[in-house]
Structure formats: C-alpha cells, structure tokens
Amino acid sequence: MGIDTGTFASKGVIIDADANVISESSAEHGMENPKPGYYEHDAEAVWWHDFCQISNDLITKSGIDPKDIKGVAASALGADCLPVDEECRPLRKAILYGIDARALDQCHELTEMYGESQIKEWFGRPLGSSDVMPKILWIKENEPEVYARTYKFLTGSSYITAKLTGEYYVDKFLGLASFNPLYKEDGTPDPDLCRPICRPDQLAKVGETTDIAGYVTPQAAQETGLAVGTPVTVGTDDSGAEGISCGIGRLGDLMLQFGSSIYMFLVTDHLVNDDRIWRERFIIPGTFDVSAGTNTAGTLTRWLRDNVFVDLKKVGEDGGENAYAAMAEEASDVPLGSDGLICLPYFAGERTPINDPHASGVYFGLRTSHTRAHLYRAGLEGVAFSINQHFKIFEEDGAPISRVMAAGGGTKNSLWMQIVADVTGKEIAVPSIGIGASYGDAMMAAVGTGTWSGFGELASKVRPGVTYKPDMENHERYEKSQRVFDALYPATKELMHELNC
Cα-Cα-Cα-Cα dihedral of 146, 150, 154, 158, to 10°? Predict the structure, then answer.
C-alpha cells in the first residue's frame, strides 16, 4: 500500500507483486492561506484524516485481508515544518513547503550569522522558502511557547510514519536537503549547528527511504484498518515518490511533476551548485540530483477554472463534462503563442529560477481580441516557458537531459503535454500508469519489504505509455515568445515589489 498527501488531495493505491493496481482511492482537501505568503495544513484534520480514510477505503475496495498487506509507505508534500509534542500531537498547523514565505527575515538573519560563503557551501545557493531551518527559527522567535513544547520538528511523511509506528524518521533524500545543515553527512544531528536553531533531540532520526521505520501500532491499526505489526517504511516527499513511479533512476533521467506546482529533478553523478536551483542526494543510494520547483501549475489552472470558467465548473459539478477537459477543448482552437499573449505564472510568488516570493502573476500583451481561451492557453504556455528556463539552466551547468518522464494530474491534459514538448524541444514520456506518488510509494514498500530486490527491479516494472514528440517547427516559432517571457520578469521586478512590499 502507498498513500501520498499533496497540496489539495491525497491519493492511495494497493498493488500486487507485478505492480498491477488492485485498488485506488483519493480524498480532496483545502489549503489555508491565513496571511499573504502564509500557507498551512491542519496535520490532524488533513494529513492523518486522509490517510485513515484512504487506507480503510483501499482495503474495503480490494477485499484483501489486511494481514496480506506486506508493507506500507507514505509520502507527503516535502519541506514542511510541523512541531509535535511527545504524543505526536501537532502544536500548530503545519507550515508548508516553499510556497510559504513567512521566514524570509530568518533567511536573512541566518545568512548574516553564517556568512554568504558558508551558506553557498552548504546549499549551493542562497537560503530560501524551501528550507526548513528558517521555518524552525521562525517558530522559535515568533511562537516561543510552541517551540518550548516541541518534542520533534517533522515533515508530512515523518508525521504520518510516526502516527503509524510511534517512530520518528525522515529519509535522507528529504532530511539532509530540507533540514540542511542541521544533520551531519552520516545523518546524525550536528549539535553545534543545531544550537542556534533547535535542540538535536528535536530532530527525527534519518534513514533510507526504503528502510523499515517500524510497525503499525494497535492504535494506528484501529484507525487505518491495517493489521497490527504491518511493516512501514521511512517514506519520503511526494516529488521523490512521483519520480520513482516513473522509473527514474539512470543518469540523465528527468522527472517533471505536474501537480499544484511544478517540481522537477534530474539524476546526476555529482552535486551541482547554482544560485537559481537546488541540489541534493537522490533517493537511490549513490546518486545525486539537481532539482527545481515553481509555485504554480495546477494552482493556476484551478484559479482560472474557479474565476474565469465558472460556467464550465458548474457543468462539471452537475455531472456534465469535466471543466478542465472543456477548458482544454476551448484552448485547442487558439493558435500557438496565444496571439501574442504572454503569461508569467507567478500567482503565488515564485521559487526557482527567480526565487522571489514577491513576484506577481502577469498577463502581458492583452488585446480586445483575446478571449478566456487565450488566457488559459497562455497560462499553459507560461508554465512551459518556465520549465524550459530550467532545462537550459541544467544543461548550462553540465547536467545534460537524456530522458524526460512526466507525472502528476497535469499529464492528463494532452494539449499541455504537447505544448511542453514543443516549447522545450524534447520528448515528454508519460508512463502507462499515471497514478503518481502513491504508486511510487507502494513500489518502494515492495523494495523495503524484500518483495523486489531493489530499484533496478522496481524500474523494470514501469510500463511505457504515451510519448509526446516535439514539432521542431513549432519549437522554433516558440522561441520568440520564450525571449519575451525571459525578459518580462526582469523588466517588471521592481514594479512588482513596489506593489507587494
């Protein structure tokens, strides 16, 4: 069994030893935005509630005896910060990943404390909203009563694994990167570096993603429907699990995740330093990756659905055609380049490559001839232009891309996939089973429990699906729009800040 918790939905799956899907389940939830730049989830009401609901539903749908489930793995949106007490009870709502920008003052404070050169040595880039260390410091400085009661600072996957087993773990892929530099290379907390931020004992233990963290407790069994004693692996973040679900593992493999935001990583044999992007050790032992994440993808299409295509949303809610499918159908009649309309998709600030939480969304070039279909297509193209910026950066840094595998809900939009292929000039392959992170979780549970021998056998189970081949004439035509896109943020950056600061 694998269950993944994302920004707006949780999904789960049970697979057999041949990676066939036995049952699926999902649950939608919201995201709280109490202040500009603040994004939160209620860990108990969202993360654990969804896990329990989906676990019970998967077991019921499959008709499987819970004792026959050989292992469970969980993933969740990464780089969150959740303080819990000794009973694993949340002490506040979880501060979410890089979209939450509340700790920027702490980023500056830590940079002054350690010096820019030391920060660059640790991270390969400036501190930013995707790092957990500033978020812990924010709690320490702004909510001292919460900090004083904190037994552990957890991420989403750490919390769920702890609720299942009573053991507090974070995997190396997520822990050593997101909590950098609080852990040593061997995965133990560094007392000296922890001291200004938190106590070493407030951090979870570090393990490989596929290590067995513990076993389902009687209390967790009662809530989830799982059998007492079922092995639970350490788990990981949603993007890592999504990549594994695609069969990513060879050098040059790139996973492109289309979720609420875009996340991507490229498997390399070394660490790459670049201020614009991130790097870390990858889930597969002995490999590294360069990675990047934007703040809007599905969030932008959702915003357009809810505010511009309200009629199509209502039709879908009333049992008619799915709103997103209808939106894509309207946009398919809009020509390449959206008749001169460019969208900067920075509707919630932006992470890579500009790392600017004060950036704003822009529609540039609007004319009375443009329709809502143009707005939608320009949004899809804007996300594609941002992806292409990253691809160029990776290759500039000597990390060539040999294969692109796409995953996530956005891959159901064939128009979007073809736009990305045409803009980047690269083939975009989508696996035949596109469930995503929860499927990768279940596959890693198979590795962790010894059902499969390792990641090599896991990758052999991934079956190819649709491949979108770039139209190179369209690629050349998109280059003009790409140049405008690349120039638009630098030209408006100061004006954005004037409005937002």
Answer: -130
